[in-house]
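Q: How would the structure tokens look for this protein?
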Amino acid sequence: MWVEVICGFIFYRLFRRFSYGSHDALDLETSGFNAIFSVANRLEKLYGGKVYVGLHIPDADTGSRQNIDIVLVTKGEAAVISVENLAGFVSVNEDGSWTCDGGRTVCHHDPVSEAKEQASVLESYIEQRGVSVPEGYFSYKVVIPNPKFRTYYKKFPSEVITYDQWVQIKPEPKGMFSGWIKGAFRGGKKEMQESFHQQLNFILSTAPMWDRMELKDNKYILGEFLEFKGKQEDILALRIIKRSKVSRLIIQKISMFGLAHSKLQVLYSCRDYRSGGASASEWKEVTVRSSTEVIFQPQNSTEVRKFKISSIKSLSLSA
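A: Here is the predicted structure in token form.
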């Protein structure tokens, strides 16, 4: 009997692995994404303003795209923030790269230089969309939010916020960044500040971003939604979900005739941003079997993953 139980368990694990991918790998992926959203939420609480997560900005110089974890915008100032969810002992090499020994040794390119490059690419992108950015408006920071972070290195660059510093940050008066940046608009005309602030938020809210999936066990994943898979009638019902029209899906589990189904609340939004005005939105509902799958490719991963729609809390699609 025990042999049958063990063989059955092994078969189940192998089936799950080939059907849905390795849970260990998924946990590793989501831990990095969860760290980004955790930092973003805390920044918003500390300083107010607006937080943009998971930007995927075109770089005109290289013809590629630059991933930006977080952009935090408050009145008069903004910061590009890279989140390094490092666990283990970290040292800084002569060339600025970091070496992390967390059970296995991993070398990282200079995070500070990368954050600086991200800020430069973002500034160029904003100016390409017709808005001039004041000199020194964007600062850049590297935040390390992992409590398992350790270091032999006594002094990191000023742009680095280590875990000990991160947990000690307190809100500053009027939402200022505790010296993170100089405040490019300080002393400027109020009308100019408000106009630029409005234009900047519009550009960032309509900038290319990764799709975002929130699972029901409080895990986040950034990446690209590919398609739905399931029974033909469910796929037909889901045809109304088009990236050009749908910005967000909220999923609820319901029971119909004793069978598990999921109800999708679909947010339809006008995505023609050329007018620069607010888009009209409306909610529609679609009900499909809970076994229907979402095919999703996480950011920086070559592996495509499957998620039952009943395990998903919400799905946000980029334009």
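Residues 23-47 form the longest helix (25 residues).

Confidence is low (pLDDT under 50) at residues 5-25.

Upvote if useful.
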